[in-house]
Design brief:
4 helices; Rossmann fold; 5 strands
Length: 122
Amino acid sequence: MGKKFTILIADRNRNVREFLKREMIEAGYSVRVAGNGREVLKWVYNYEPIDLLILDPDLPDAGELSILEKIVGRIPTLPVVVHAFSSDYANNPSVMDTIAFVEKNGSSIEHLKKVIFELLRN
């Protein structure tokens, strides 16, 4: 991997954030984390640029689809991977064309890494 990509991981569950952070660092990425919608928007809008967002839209202080719509509306070139328990998000026409979806389950980490690699190499 030439450039070291920066990934923002947003999940309300601290254990999930830390697990994904360890896995992504091990895969060679630089990682930032957010535990609520306000932190996500601060990272996306105010801090150093990020190359990809892993998002569970079920965040405190954020409407599930409104945070996606805000990010996609403001930064349409930012790749977003929705990492959630329900595939309901993947069927929303307002965001379907701009996101990838990986359902959370016990073995989703390898699939998640593959999706991230594919998105970032383009």
